[in-house]
């Protein structure tokens, strides 16, 4: 039996460039071994993403010819580096009437929606080439809304346009307005960023994978149905760690306004760290060989800004350099991932 290979991608706004850089190295190594047409989407059995990670998930699972992945991860990197400043730009007038996003969302969603429409067109969730899980949160019904391509293929109530899903999963409070989207069945949902509860969606991915009949989905019994942790290989990629601390003096009696930015930052980073701890403990219960099938990749931001919307040319270059530095220092680990992906391909 072959392992179920799962890729999980954290949220983090423009910092998703770091994830793209790491994935680009993995894809290039696959191409050296398997040929120039190798794509990440063809080697992972399931991909999960929150916020910017949800957008990358949709990019690498876009359908091409013969149910193969259409895009190289380079296409995703181009989208961030070429369109990032357009998406995250805030005009002088907006800064003047809405300083620091105090009175309404910091960034207009128009550029984001325009670029999502151009990139994804009318592709539906059910058309993505592999099982996927993209997170968001339903603010009206107060519950998680998980977009699952397998469920979407079974019934129209769970099927949506991919561009709408990407808009929903990236609707970070204080940055973008909530998304109001409609399923293919006609039901409306009011959604915000999935990173609010699962900025690291790896544990959500594990839970979803446990109930999936992969052998039946792929029509290949080399893959197990309803896999346990022993049947999985998981690669979880973050959007950069930072060492920013908050002093007692700064936050003592800070009030609601003073806590807005720290709370969002702490919630997202603490969530990611907790999920990493839980999954690491789960894999540590396995035998010596299978313990090594969990990889958590989260490069240091180094000189890059921790802000999710800093899409300046200088910061984009710093994010790229942060990803490249991680690759330079961790090639052995990344090459192990490549070997495991080729071994478990069907």
Automatic annotation (TrEMBL):
One of its GO terms (biological process) is lipid catabolic process. A motif (GXSXG) lies at residues 49-53. It comes from the Bacteria. Residues 7-206 form the PNPLA domain. A motif (GXGXXG) lies at residues 11-16. One of its GO terms (molecular function) is phospholipase activity. Keywords: Hydrolase, Lipid degradation, Lipid metabolism. The keyword Lipid metabolism applies. The active site is at 51 (nucleophile), 193 (proton acceptor). A motif (DGA/G) lies at residues 193-195. Belongs to the patatin family. PANTHER family: XYLOSE ISOMERASE. This is Patatin-like phospholipase/acyl hydrolase. It comes from Chryseobacterium takakiae.
């Amino acid at each position: 039996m072959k392992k179920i290979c799962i890729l999980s991608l954290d949220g983090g706004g423009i910092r998703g460039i770091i994830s793209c850089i790491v994935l680009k190295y993995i894809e290039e190594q696959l191409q050296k071994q398997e040929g120039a047409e190798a794509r990440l989407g063809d080697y992972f059995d399931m991909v999960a993403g929150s916020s910017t990670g949800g957008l990358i998930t949709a990019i690498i699972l876009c359908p091409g010819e013969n149910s193969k992945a259409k895009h190289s991860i380079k296409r995703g990197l181009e989208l961030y580096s070429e369109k990032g400043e357009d998406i995250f730009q805030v005009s002088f007038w907006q800064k003047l009437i809405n300083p620091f996003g105090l009175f309404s969302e910091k960034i207009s969603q128009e550029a984001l929606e325009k670029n999502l429409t151009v990139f994804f067109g009318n592709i539906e969730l059910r058309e993505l080439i592999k099982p996927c899980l993209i997170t968001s949160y339903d603010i009206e019904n107060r519950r998680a809304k998980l977009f699952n391509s397998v469920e979407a293929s079974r019934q129209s109530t769970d099927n949506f346009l991919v561009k709408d899903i990407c808009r929903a999963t990236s609707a970070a409070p204080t940055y973008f307005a909530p998304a109001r989207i409609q399923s293919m069945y006609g039901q409306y949902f009011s959604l915000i960023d999935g990173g609010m509860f699962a900025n690291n969606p790896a544990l959500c991915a594990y839970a979803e994978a446990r109930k999936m009949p992969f052998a039946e989905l792929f029509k290949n019994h080399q893959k197990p149905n309803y896999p346990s942790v022993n049947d999985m290989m998981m690669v979880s990629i973050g959007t950069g760690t930072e060492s920013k601390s908050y002093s007692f003096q700064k936050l003592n009696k800070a009030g609601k306004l003073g806590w807005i930015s720290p709370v969002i930052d702490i919630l997202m980073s603490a969530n990611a760290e907790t999920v990493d701890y839980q999954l690491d403990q789960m894999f540590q219960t396995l035998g010596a060989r299978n313990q090594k099938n969990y990889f958590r990749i989260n490069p240091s931001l180094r000189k890059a800004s921790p802000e999710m919307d800093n899409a300046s040319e200088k910061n984009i270059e710093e994010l790229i350099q942060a990803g490249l530095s991680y690759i330079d220092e961790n090639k052995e680990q990344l090459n192990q991932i490549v070997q495991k992906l080729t071994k478990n391909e069907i």
